[in-house]
């Protein structure tokens, strides 16, 4: 067995271990500790991917699932996935470390491990068929999280939207992998199906209504874990960008930019913290999509960076809301809740992650958005102005949330003794996330270089396919 | 012509000057982040030390520059990427203007830091205050020394954020965060205008370098002329108007007085409110190519000055009165820049920033003395003397008084024509989203399940 295979088996063993342990009769808190330890180990192990050039050349190819000459990589580690693997592991760690005890039972822990495994496997493949299977499985996992009586309506909404998305994806993949479709109308139809599937999955307007609904009235934890990795963005990079026509990319970019502004504007007027999170996610994830669908190297690299920064920052921000809800119940943004003095770490980390989410200077998000705007201006000038408006509005939305959730009301004397602060595990996880987001914002070069290398690779692949199709 | 070969000592001095407050913010912010705020006995000296080091380094840089160089120099501290050229880089443009303003900023910040050390003694947010002050000084220095539009924007945003958070400093009352949000909203308009100008700069000139664009070089003239120059200059003027509270954005100024007096002094009496004037000075070569924008700047400055002079006379609290008095001078400085009296404008800026800082900081003592005099006299001292108001007809004077008392009705105009329509449309769209879900799948009436959201993972 090669080093890369051994490494891959070792990394995948961590979530598998948690899944296996969740089937045994061990105490939930011990299971949680095992999950946290596994997530930390997985995160540390996945950091080898961006650091080790030897791992990045690994690929298992097969012609069985593709009509392309030479087949496709069923499993591969390249410059794109090298940064996405620690990203997926980090999201898992964040989930198991900070989700309140009452909100994470044995099934929940198992589900987080399964979801991480599926996301991780998705980031490892470039095969449309494998991606389809993994995508369908992750939708099924998400639906299973909504199977309690309180969330039946949200479950049906998600089933309709993501069911249609999965069907479109399946239709597109079926057409794309059929022999002899290259350069025919069928290939264009297949691409449109995949594009539509990605747009629904990413919550791009007008296919977005399920996102605020599931964030607001569904279950926030699973919604974060399902949405934050942005598998729809991965579908776009691997399947759409290399094959799509410029017109197709233009349509996606315009819809994504509209969504970025729309989501930001609506996040600003929400009275529910959860719903505001949903719109913030829509806005930021749409920016990622807009960057990915722009054929400039800088814009693409910017989109890839925003993907990482917005994914992590948004997940952290939404988890902060979850932690606050565990202490205060549902959070209404039309009033001030106070409590900064008693939860200073949560308040500071909330603000820092919110600002990182909106691309504020000094955070990784700023670097991504600057590159996105910088690269897109020549190719697609309107993108620059849309990013400016979206960024201004999301910044306002985040500060409004911060003021509402942590400022404006002195604590009642009678409640002064209540313990509201974070547990050490929660505090250190949030602090580590903020340090990562700010650290890469201040010293972004390694990550920027790696994303430039990935975007070069993606655009080279696109050029190669264009040349092939002309032949 | 801009000299591109920086001398080494200058590079180091500028780095130390900008790095000291940034390091102070990292130390104080990091301590707050892990809930181990540094005690007063170390925060005060740390802040004083950082501001002193920064000020000394920048004064030395000013001296070194003045004795060794005649042209503006572009100091580069590396780029974000080694793989792609022409990307975003950390660059500082040093000349007499930038180094002078930077040195002035740190000197003023040092004075405020020393004053705050006693003023905020035993205040619960003592550490937070100094962390935000350090962030503000870092932002101001980046604005002053920015060599490209990305660095300028970073500084611009840092100044805005620290300002909003300091307005909300006494956050246990609802009014400070509410007012801070209004202040930040105007700052975001200013930021958006600045970023739009940056986008347009890159699109039309292919560069974000301030050395080329604002350096008054042949390249800048060729790169930016006609409509492009006018649009970019107008966007910059909008950015300046937002940050410096020029009309029609002046209404945030009294709201910003919720913060502690030293922060009001350094932001709205002294530095932040002049940041816009500095940006206009910096972009003077661009304004030369855009006469319409110059005219607009002049008109805005004059109108703001008259409006602020009226409004300051009817304020009932000393901080608001001083803030509007500052605005009067800021308007005049903008007019001077629009006319082209750049040296006078800079001298006016530096003098006014220092004088107003002193006024703000001594205001609490003056009030204290006044109360003592009132108590001794048993009555309020009579304010007398002739004034220009008496030349204005009674009816007009009454109307102007009402306008000044309502601060030009600017808040209600903004609310009625911008904020309310935006909120109304956004709320309707939000309702539309709910309807969109129902259209796909009609909701069944169901009772709320208690604790339904608890099992969240």
Describe the protein.
The complex is a heterodimer of chains A (471) and B (457). Chain A has one domain (3-470). Chain A is 74% helix and 2% strand. Chain A is built from 20 helices and 2 strands. Chain A has helices at residues 3-22, 28-46, 48-51, 53-56, 79-98, 106-124, 128-144, 152-177, 185-202, 210-216, 220-227, 231-240, 246-267, 273-292, 297-328, 344-357, 364-379, 381-406, 424-442, 445-470, and strands at residues 59-62, 72-76. A two-stranded antiparallel sheet of chain A has the order 1-2. Chain A is globular. Chain A starts with a helix and ends with a helix. Chain B has 457 residues and is mostly helical. Chain B folds into 2 domains: 8-368, no CATH class; 409-438. Chain B has 18 helices and 2 strands. In chain B, strands 1-2 form a two-stranded antiparallel sheet. In chain B, helix 9 packs parallel to helix 14. The longest helix of chain B has 36 residues, at 342-377. The termini of chain B are far apart. Residues 1-5 and 447-455 of chain B have low confidence and may be disordered. Chains A and B meet through helix 6, helix 8, helix 10, helix 11 and helix 13 of A and helix 5, helix 6 and helix 18 of B.
